[in-house]
UniProtKB/TrEMBL annotation:
<keyword id="KW-1133">Transmembrane helix</keyword>
<keyword id="KW-0472">Membrane</keyword>
<keyword id="KW-0812">Transmembrane</keyword>
<dbReference type="GO" id="GO:0016020">
    <property type="term" value="C:membrane"/>
</dbReference>
<protein>
    <recommendedName>
        <fullName>YqaE/Pmp3 family membrane protein</fullName>
    </recommendedName>
</protein>
<comment type="similarity">
    <text>Belongs to the UPF0057 (PMP3) family.</text>
</comment>
<dbReference type="Pfam" id="PF01679">
    <property type="entry name" value="Pmp3"/>
</dbReference>
<dbReference type="InterPro" id="IPR000612">
    <property type="entry name" value="PMP3"/>
</dbReference>
<feature type="transmembrane region" description="Helical">
    <location>
        <begin position="27"/>
        <end position="47"/>
    </location>
</feature>
Amino acid sequence: MILIAVLLPWLSFFLRGKIVSGIICLILQFTLIGWLPAAIWAVASRVQGKNKADIRRLEKKINQ
């Protein structure tokens, strides 16, 4: 999934259901200068989403 976020940042957002972010990222990726920030944004968003899921899972485990 990180490879998709680096190569096709907009697709990474679409696959996670963030359509508006995906469209903004696609517009940003159309410019040559904007591709790098779009890729960084997609990877950072992916990592943040994974961390939130891990935290929720651990909180659920602790509360049992």
